[in-house]
């Protein structure tokens, strides 16, 4: 019914849906007693999803190095900066 | 910016010479635009989380007026639209599946419309409860971030409408790079929301 690339897209989409529901679970106060940790996990899941969408749907995984640096670098730097400010400030 | 563009062009030339499997999705220009846009949003996100730390109570009280379920729904809608766009571009590569590509792009367009309708109801409810741009600092961020993102969605819908038109043409396969460029923009709209959602709706 689906070819291999279509099957891959659909599998990744299902994975992203599950991650979104996990985010909801953390966002509604589950998963950790300290809201700071559940919020941090939710934020990091969001940024990880950006990496997955970029890698699979945008085909950054097969793109030249500068493109990979732009997308993955954005995720990584933003993860570090946002979590640092959120947890430490 | 110029240096990055040159590097990308060089990579493209080297890759085409070597017939490597590496491939730049879409035009170089869309990546320059995406890079600028992502930098702008990164500045917004850092500014938000920093200002939030100075007034946590106000932000948490204001955030309690948002519906997480509405945010999750919008996330699922955009992820689904990204899937349809990816499937649509994948289908256009195969010239015998032009009609299927049109169907996928039309479904992605529909998802974009549903996102806008949801956003309309969400904003209407907030405004109806007296929560406007001038209510407090949190709602300035809320309306500005979701507003700029909504503008991106609107532009994305025009792009999807153009791709839908292109996919109906016999020459659609020859315009594959245009499809990739439009799809890349739409995926960017999706991934920006993936950060806006936890920041505005969940982080407490």
For the CA atoms, what is the radius of gyration of chain B? 19 Å
Assign the structural class of chain A, choosing from mainly alpha, mainly beta, alpha/beta, alpha+beta, or little secondary structure.
Answer: mainly alpha
| CATH class type of chain B | Mainly Alpha
Distance between the termini of chain A: 52 Å
The description of the largest β-sheet of chain A is: none
- Mean pLDDT over all positions of chain B: 89
Oligomeric state as shown: heterodimer
Strand and helix order of chain A: HHH
Structure notes:
The complex is a heterodimer of chains A (89) and B (204). Chain A has 89 residues and is mainly α. Chain A has one domain. Chain A has helices spanning 4-27, 35-57, 65-88. In chain A, α2 runs antiparallel to α3. The N and C termini of chain A lie far apart (52 Å). Chain B is mainly α and 204 residues long. Chain B has seven helices and no strands. Residues 13-19 of chain B have low confidence and may be disordered. Chain B is elongated and about 55 Å long. Chain B starts with a helix and ends with a helix. Chain B is 81% helix and 0% strand. The longest helix of chain B has 31 residues, at 98-128. Chain B has one domain (39-202): Up-down Bundle (Four Helix Bundle (Hemerythrin (Met), subunit A)), CATH 1.20.120.80.
Spell out the blueprint of helices and strands.
The complex is a heterodimer of chains A (89) and B (204).
Chain A: H1 4-27, H2 35-57, H3 65-88
Helix pairs in contact in A: 1-2, 2-3
Chain B: H1 2-18, H2 28-54, H3 56-63, H4 68-92, H5 98-128, H6 137-167, H7 176-202
Helix pairs in contact in B: 2-7, 4-5, 4-7, 5-6, 6-7
């Amino acid at each position: 019914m689906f070819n291999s690339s279509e099957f891959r897209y659909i599998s990744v989409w299902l994975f992203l849906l599950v991650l979104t529901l996990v985010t909801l679970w953390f966002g509604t106060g589950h998963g950790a007693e300290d809201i700071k940790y559940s919020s941090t996990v939710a934020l990091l899941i969001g940024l990880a999803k950006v990496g997955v969408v970029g890698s699979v749907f945008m085909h950054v995984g097969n793109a030249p190095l500068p493109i990979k640096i732009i997308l993955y670098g954005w995720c990584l730097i933003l993860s570090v900066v946002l979590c640092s400010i959120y947890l430490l400030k | 910016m110029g240096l990055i563009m040159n590097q990308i062009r060089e990579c493209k030339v080297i890759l085409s010479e070597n017939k490597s499997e590496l491939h730049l999705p879409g035009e170089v220009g869309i990546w320059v635009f995406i890079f600028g846009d992502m930098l702008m949003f990164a500045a917004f996100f850092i500014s938000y989380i920093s200002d939030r730390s100075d007034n946590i109570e106000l932000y948490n009280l204001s955030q309690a007026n948002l519906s997480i379920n509405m945010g999750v729904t919008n996330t699922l809608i955009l992820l689904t639209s990204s899937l349809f766009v990816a499937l649509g571009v994948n289908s256009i590569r195969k010239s015998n599946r032009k009609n299927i590509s049109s169907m996928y792009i039309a479904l992605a367009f529909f998802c974009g419309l549903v996102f806008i309708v949801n956003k309309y109801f969400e904003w209407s409810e907030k405004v109806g409860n007296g929560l406007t741009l001038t209510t407090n600092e949190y709602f300035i961020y809320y309306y500005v971030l979701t507003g700029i993102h909504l503008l991106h969605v609107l532009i994305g819908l025009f792009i999807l409408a153009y791709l839908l038109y292109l996919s109906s043409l016999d020459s659609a396969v020859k315009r594959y790079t245009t499809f990739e460029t439009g799809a890349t923009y739409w995926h960017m709209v999706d991934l920006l929301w993936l950060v806006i959602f936890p920041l505005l709706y969940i982080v407490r």
